[in-house]
Amino acid sequence: MSWFFFYNKLKNPVLINQVCEKNDIYDGSILVENFDPQTNTLITGNNKILDGKLVHFDASLSTILNNIHEIRDDINYGKSKYTVDTILVNYGALKLKKAYIIY
């Protein structure tokens, strides 16, 4: 069981289902310092709100990361290195969930 926050290209439900069909998708948002959608450059902080999708997968972290790697051509930004971190996601009526984020 893994929770992820997706933004930009990966918030597309079609791509989310390619990662793992057993999922639950919620609208969510996080606080960031800055985000450039062209380069997918994200700086964590609390200056701006970034909307995306909070996704609960019925699979382990390693399985989800491997599946994302398999669809990398659909989400590629030309980066050779990504960071996996955790972040608090706002969703629903004043709810918070700790989730993984890739940037």
CATH fold node name: Hypothetical upf0131 protein ytfp
Number of helices: 3
Just give the CATH class: Alpha Beta
Q: What is the H-and-E element order?
A: EHEEHHEE
Helicity range: 10-25%
Give the tally of structural domains. 1
Average pLDDT, all residues: 91
- Spans of 5+ residues with little confidence (pLDDT < 50)? none
The CATH superfamily turns out to be: Gamma-glutamyl cyclotransferase-like
Coarse shape: globular
Which sequence of strands runs across the widest sheet? 1-3-2-4-5
**CATH structural architecture:** Roll
Radius of gyration: 13 Å
Provide structural commentary.
- Helices cover 20% and strands 50% of the residues.
- The protein is an alpha+beta fold and 103 residues long.
- It has a single domain (2-102), classed as Roll (Hypothetical upf0131 protein ytfp), CATH 3.10.490.
- A five-stranded mixed beta barrel has the order 1-3-2-4-5.
- The chain is globular.
- It starts with a strand and ends with a strand.
